[in-house]
Amino acid sequence: MKKVGILLITTLMLGACASTSQNEESASNASSETTTSQTDNSSSVKAKEQEETEKKTQFIAEAFSTLLNYDNDTYNERNSKIDQYFTQETLDGLIGYEHLDDTTQYVSTIEITDYYQNVGDNNRFVLTADTTFQVDENQPTELTNIYEIQLIEKDGQYLIESVETTPKPQQTMIP
What we know:
The protein is of the alpha+beta class. Helix content is 47%, strand content 29%. The protein has helices at residues 2-68, 75-81, 88-95; strands at 70-71, 106-117, 124-135, 141-154, 157-167. It has a 5-stranded antiparallel sheet, covered by helices on one side.
């Protein structure tokens, strides 16, 4: 009788262990599925954020290319497009009142070298750009500038709301 009791208790314990093992395995599988789902969601969110950042960066590149890549022939076209990228207040601060003499030959170019997005505000960017401006046959003026940019979204379109520019110390300025 004692042997039957011990055998019964052992069988129950083995059954309980097997049941616990199956429950742990089920819980582990559910946890894996949840983790996989969370990873998929996280990857999806990161991909969407990356895509949005790329759109903003492309917009900024187009804006500054329109603003600073021009010559006598493209100046009027530039002025007709520029308000698609900048708020009027920002444009007033950037270009103020421009009037270029039609008899003077000028060329302005920009090459954006780096983009940085603010970690805490994904609508704030910093870019560095090399700008060259040449008037007539004079030696071109070359500057590297650092632009701090604040984007806004208005009616489903981006606009650059503010630009702060700082000249980067130039090679010719360093002794």
